Amino acid sequence: MLRAVQVFLLSSLFLSAWSAAVAAPEAYIVSPKDGDVVTSPVTVVFGLSGYGVAPAGTMKEKTGHHHLIIDAPLPDFSQPIPANDNYRHFGGGQTQATVELPPGEHTIQLLLGDFAHMPHASPIYSEVVTITVR
Q1: Coil, strand or helix: which one is 45?
Q2: Local confidence pLDDT in tens for the 134 residues of the chain
Q3: Is 108 helix (H, G, I), strand (E, B) or coil?
Q4: Beta bridge partners of 67
Q5: For the chain, which domains are there?
Q6: Strand 104-113 versus strand 129-133 pairing type
Q7: Which of 58, 111, 65, 67 is nearest to 85 (CA)?
Q8: How is the chain classified by DSSP, letter by letter?
Q9: Of 24, 90, 97, 132, whose Cβ has the fewest other Cβ atoms within 10 Å?
Q10: Are 10 and 18 in contact (CB under 8 A)?
Q11: How many CB atoms lie within 10 A of CB 113?
């Protein structure tokens, strides 16, 4: 009986560690932080965990490249991510960008795209960050 309890406890510890290691991928904005007051140009530092960054056109499992959404909602996940002033593509695998923004309040958000600029089957996007540009 003692042996069975030991095996159960060790199995539980292993499963807990394994679950933490395979956590869902997450995109996030390292800086600026929500509520920051900044000056233009604004350097946005991209964060990603659980996936790797690869340039557009690279067909490699569990990778993608960043798209910065400025003052716009998340796009239709069944379509390629638009490319315009509100949806900026970083297909070179960049992990930060410096953008010019006019004075006022702005929202920024990241969305990871696959090799063809499509959101992944389970879309990977950050929370919205609101900043004020002086």
Answers
A1: strand
A2: 556 545 444 455 454 444 445 579 999 999 999 999 999 999 999 999 999 999 999 999 999 999 999 999 999 999 999 999 999 999 999 999 999 999 999 999 999 999 999 999 999 999 999 999 99
A3: strand
A4: 89, 111
A5: 24-133 (2.60.40.10)
A6: antiparallel
A7: 67
A8: -HHHHHHHHHHHHHHHHHHHHTPPPEEEEEESPTT-EE-SSEEEEEEEESSEE--TT---TTEEEEEEEESS----TTSPPP-SSSEEE-TT--SEEEE---SEEEEEEEEEE-TTSPBPSS--BPPPEEEEE-
A9: 24
A10: no
A11: 22
Retrieve residue 29's tokens: 């904005």
Structure tokens given for 17:
């560690």
Instruction: Report which residue type is found at 57.
Output: G
Place of tokens 């060790």: 10
